[in-house]
């Protein structure tokens, strides 16, 4: 992504800045989030509507992103960006201050409120375009046109001033669920991740992963998967994960013998899986828990086994690739022993223990688990610094500021997602689209699932995960549930395919970031990452037909479904990598893939499927027993040379 917003149409990033206004707004954004979570307004007897702090947060996010754009502009454009940020912030602060009266004033549609709504919607659209890209803006524009001029298409037309005021002030629109989840839940978890990084926790996770996996074949690639998985549990952000771990793992994989595109693809695929790996699964997972009205720890439990399948597939393919390319372990000089690494940073386990205890034992809200983990992390860092790094007040202030500036673009995305929800509600298109999807599928579950998956992949090519999830969860999740899927199955299905936007060209932010670090071709990296992450396209169909994979139903059913899924994924991974106990011929690769797919079929579908599972399992066992190992092949070749000589 480029940093020159005035000469390129590509999205920009929020790089570090000396802009005092952006830093101040970022600090206030985090402060408002923490104050709202801790219920400080009620403690000082200042009752507020939920929408009031949300309006402040949106205004501060608009200001941060506008100020950062101004830093990259020159001349009059810089001044215009700064002024726009100040104006948008002033409007949203006015909305927050007068919100109790606006619930009445909105009905009368005063001119100042209408003009304010136009300004905020236009500013939000422009900033989302600059930071994220055009597709999500086009979706908002399309639904807006339908709301304003949709009469010929059977959509009730809405007056322009009513449309604008509804978008700005209604709790189902801009100030709706996505923004609330971002402010209440995502910000404290991002703050925890930033604190962990600045206190040395991310370095500790990297060293632990290197110590565990580095002594095995393909150690550098396995350590990259392990590091990205561990770091993904706290960030839930694919690009952040790539940047934090890839700067170390990608060069190491290249030195070990992997090509630049393969090394970058391994990092991109593993980092993308961080959005699926509990306990922190990214903004979309928090929105999902709120959508289906279940505790977040239920989402964690349901997502655990699919996440294990995803990383298991990547790990197996990396191992087979390493065996095929003869990639050895990491040199002892480049890794520590597990005991030495844990002795240095074992205290970082305490914040995670606290997080899990608060989340599962106390069964409280996820944001309170994040707050508890933050407190524990600060205390252990002060008491026991890691490699001389202690969280001083100056570092804490910098972390808070950096957190605010890094989450501001995410809040813009959630605000745009809120606009889409509001427009769908305003036009009533949600029900009609769901009905048309069911009619198009002929009522067949598998056809509807494929249709939803294709739409999610298409949307994911130009929209971030949370935006894809919000759009499809609003218009298509009801259709999936009408075919018999439980809410958790339907929404996780959409979340998985929305997540693939990080790897799916042409956007593929995780692949692009990894390719830049590794000096590789972006397209080659993206396609290799897609090949590694193939399981993410298949597992959603498995748990759609087998809820046991979401740890629902009986323990017997869950165990059987897990065993067939893991076995099938192992076989397909071997076929995809072209290596089992030794290198496979093209025909044998196809046999492994087909047999693996047959073994993966959910046993719960019936006796016939169970028989197919058994046949596939027996075939795979026989193939593995008959496939000679590399050592045996080498020995046979050596004997052949001896006979000829």
Concise description?
75% of the residues lie in helices and 0% in strands. It is mainly α and 645 residues long. The model is unreliable at 1-16 (pLDDT under 50).
Low-confidence stretches: 1-16
Indicate the percent of residues in helices.
Answer: over 70%
In this structure, how is the largest beta sheet organized? none
- The assigned structural class equals mainly alpha
- The percentage of residues in β strands lies in under 5%
Task: Give the arrangement of secondary structure elements.
Elements: H1 20-37, H2 40-43, H3 51-72, H4 76-97, H5 99-108, H6 111-131, H7 135-149, H8 160-169, H9 177-198, H10 201-213, H11 219-235, H12 238-256, H13 260-272, H14 283-291, H15 296-325, H16 338-345, H17 349-361, H18 366-383, H19 393-427, H20 429-441, H21 445-460, H22 465-475, H23 477-482, H24 487-499, H25 509-518, H26 522-532, H27 535-545, H28 555-577, H29 586-600, H30 607-626, H31 630-644
Helix pairs in contact: 1-3, 1-9, 1-19, 3-4, 3-6, 3-19, 4-6, 5-8, 6-7, 6-8, 6-19, 7-19, 8-19, 9-14, 9-18, 9-19, 10-11, 10-16, 11-12, 11-13, 11-15, 12-13, 12-25, 13-25, 13-26, 14-22, 15-27, 15-28, 17-18, 19-22, 20-21, 21-22, 21-24, 22-24, 24-27, 25-26, 28-29, 29-30
């Amino acid at each position: 992504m480029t940093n020159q917003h005035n000469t390129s149409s590509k999205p920009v990033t929020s790089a570090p800045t000396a802009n005092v206004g952006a830093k101040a707004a970022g600090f206030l954004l985090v402060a408002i989030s923490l104050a709202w979570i801790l219920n400080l307004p009620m403690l000082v007897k200042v009752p507020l509507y939920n929408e009031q702090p949300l309006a402040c947060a949106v205004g501060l996010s608009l200001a941060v992103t506008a100020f950062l754009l101004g830093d990259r502009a020159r001349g009059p454009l810089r001044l215009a960006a700064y002024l726009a940020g100040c104006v948008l912030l002033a409007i949203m602060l006015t909305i927050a201050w007068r919100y109790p009266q606006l619930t009445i004033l909105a009905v009368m549609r005063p001119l100042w409120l209408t003009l304010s709504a136009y300004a905020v919607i236009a500013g939000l659209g422009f900033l989302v375009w600059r930071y994220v890209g055009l597709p999500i803006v086009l979706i908002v524009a399309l639904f807006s046109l339908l709301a304003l001029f949709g009469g010929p298409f059977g959509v009730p037309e809405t007056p322009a001033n009513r449309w604008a005021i509804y978008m700005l002030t209604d709790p189902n629109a801009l100030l709706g669920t996505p923004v609330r989840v971002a402010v209440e839940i995502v910000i404290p978890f991002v703050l925890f991740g930033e604190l962990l990084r600045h206190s040395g926790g991310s370095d500790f996770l990297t060293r632990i992963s290197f110590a565990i996996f580095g002594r095995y074949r393909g150690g550098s690639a396995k350590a990259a998967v392990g590091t990205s998985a561990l770091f993904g549990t706290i960030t839930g952000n694919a690009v952040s994960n790539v940047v934090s771990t890839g700067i170390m793992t990608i060069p190491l994989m290249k030195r070990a013998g992997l090509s630049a595109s393969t090394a970058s693809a391994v990092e991109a695929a593993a980092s993308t899986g961080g959005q699926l790996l509990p306990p922190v699964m990214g903004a979309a997972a928090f929105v999902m828990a709120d959508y289906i009205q279940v505790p977040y720890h239920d989402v964690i439990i349901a997502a655990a086994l699919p996440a294990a399948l995803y990383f298991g597939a990547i790990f197996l393919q990396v191992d087979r690739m390493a065996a095929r390319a003869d990639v050895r372990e990491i040199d002892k000089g480049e890794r520590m022993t597990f005991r030495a690494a844990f002795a240095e940073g074992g205290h970082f386990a305490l914040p995670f223990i606290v997080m899990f205890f608060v989340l599962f034992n106390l069964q409280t809200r996820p944001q309170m688990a994040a707050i508890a983990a933050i407190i524990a992390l600060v205390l252990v860092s002060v008491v026991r610094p890691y490699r001389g790094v202690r969280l001083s007040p100056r570092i804490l202030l910098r972390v808070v500021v950096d957190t605010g500036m890094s989450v501001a673009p995410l809040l813009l995305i959630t605000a745009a997602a809120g606009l889409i929800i509001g427009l769908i509600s305003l036009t009533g298109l949600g029900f009609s689209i769901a009905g048309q999807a069911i009619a198009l599928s002929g009522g067949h579950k598998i056809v509807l699932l494929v249709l939803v998956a294709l739409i999610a992949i298409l949307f994911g090519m130009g929209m971030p995960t949370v935006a894809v999830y919000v759009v499809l969860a609003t218009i298509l999740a009801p259709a999936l549930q009408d075919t018999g899927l439980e809410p958790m199955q339907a929404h996780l299905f959409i979340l998985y395919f929305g997540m693939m936007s990080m790897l799916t060209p042409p956007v593929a932010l995780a692949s692009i970031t990894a390719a830049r670090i590794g000096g590789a071709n972006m397209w080659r990296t993206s396609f290799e990452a897609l090949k590694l992450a193939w399981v993410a396209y298949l597992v959603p169909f498995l748990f759609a037909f087998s809820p046991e994979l979401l740890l629902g139903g009986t323990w017997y059913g869950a165990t059987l479904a897990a065993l067939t899924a893991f076995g099938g994924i192992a076989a397909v991974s071997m076929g995809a990598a072209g290596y089992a106990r030794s290198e496979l011929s093209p025909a044998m690769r196809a046999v492994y893939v087909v047999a693996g797919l047959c073994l993966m079929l959910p046993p719960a579908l019936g006796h016939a499927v169970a028989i197919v599972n058994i046949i596939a399992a027996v075939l795979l066992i026989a193939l593995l027993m008959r496939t000679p190992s590399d050592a045996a092949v080498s020995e046979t070749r050596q004997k052949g040379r001896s006979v000829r000589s």
